[in-house]
Amino acid sequence: MHPTDPVPHPDPAAAHHSARLGDLIRAGIAAAGGLLPFDRFMDLALYAPGLGYYVAGAAKFGAGGDFVTAPQLSPLFGGCIAVQAAQALERLGGGDVLEFGAGDGALAVAVLTGLERLGALPGRYLILEPSPDLQERQRALLAARVPHLAGRCAWLTGLPSALRGVVLANEVLDAMPVHRFSIGAGGEPLELCVGERDGALIEVEAPVRSPGLTAAITALQHAGLAQTPGYTSEINLRLHPWCAALGDCLDAGLVLLIDYGYPASAYYQPDRTMGTLMCHWRHQAHADPYRHLGLQDIGAHVDFSAVAQAALAAELTVAGFATQAQFLIGCGIDRLMTDAADGGAADLNLAQAVKQLLLPAAMGERFKVLALSRGLSGPWCGFSMRDLRDRL
């Protein structure tokens, strides 16, 4: 559906759920003295226990949810991830796979199936999933699709103390809460906060109050970005602690981060004056994060330059950067497609799904793959077609 189409109204039960989350957020605004930094609002909207979008139990993925991810389009996506993971596990002499936020479990199923076909099964397939509801859905899908491999899977509530293997994060970073900012009339940084007026949530420009935000905005301005009065965008200040925690647990291995986003020079280009924040509900996109609280996804594009900087600070190596299309082609999606074809009517659906994964107007260029590593060296098949690290 077109992003400007009217968004349908929730049913009474969903509206009641949304109202409860609204009360929690308004209480948070009051406790913060009347203004809540946007990243705290986004954190509550997505992750408030029992109420946030990702932990409340509503269908989110696929045709019956709010959006479709690459693993749901085709198992060939996970098959390509498996090819890259197998290369890393071979160089390590074995290891585990850790997936952040495994959604409905489709990627886990496809990766395990692909690794089995390649004779490269991990010792364990670990899933770090904060949502109890999604954990149950993942368990059910794995038990139904790959029952003989389900015993290798274990669910975590936090990072392991040590890991040797492959880390996967598909559409995880875009769901991290972000700070929003604008540039004042005199070029000064301002923070966009959330307030309340007559019970409604409103956006308020205020002097910067979040630690580290002024320095981050100033760094962008020193690089010639985000300088025009009225310019509005986002900054993810959680990347550094996230990468630091990942670096603390990773003894050796390869990290694959797949998400929609840009290098900083494109993220903060002058004509992107309103940032990248976008909401999704029932396959419709719109830009109002204060609508349908707890019922809709809220996300921002990923600044891959900032991810790379945070990774380097965590003593991880930036091992590769490519568009999703370049990565999948490097991992042999054409070969996997040929192997999967059976000459039947399903081949048309297979071809259509692959087009969605590869075409520039679909996911092929909008999504990127960033590889990080420790204790391993390339080259990596996923970046054999093109490596864009020089653009970070």
Describe the structure.
Keywords: Methyltransferase, Transferase. GO terms for molecular function: protein-arginine omega-N symmetric methyltransferase activity. It comes from Candidatus Thiodictyon syntrophicum. This is SAM-dependent methyltransferase. The chain is an alpha/beta fold and 392 residues long. It contains 13 helices and 16 strands. Strands 2, 3, 4, 5, 10, 14, 15 and 16 form an eight-stranded mixed beta sheet that branches.
Give a quick set of tags describing it:
392 residues, alpha/beta, Rossmann fold, eight-stranded mixed beta sheet, five-stranded antiparallel beta sheet, 36% helix, globular, disordered N terminus
In short:
Keywords: Methyltransferase, Transferase. It contains 13 helices and 16 strands. It is α/β, with parallel strands linked by helices and 392 residues long.
Q: Assign the structural class, choosing from mainly alpha, mainly beta, alpha/beta, alpha+beta, or little secondary structure.
A: alpha/beta
What is the CA-atom radius of gyration, in angstroms? 21 Å
The CATH architecture term of the domain at 70-175 and 240-267 and 301-391 is 3-Layer(aba) Sandwich
Q: Might you state the CATH topology name of the domain at 70-175 and 240-267 and 301-391?
A: Rossmann fold
Could you estimate the helical fraction of the residues in percent? 25-40%
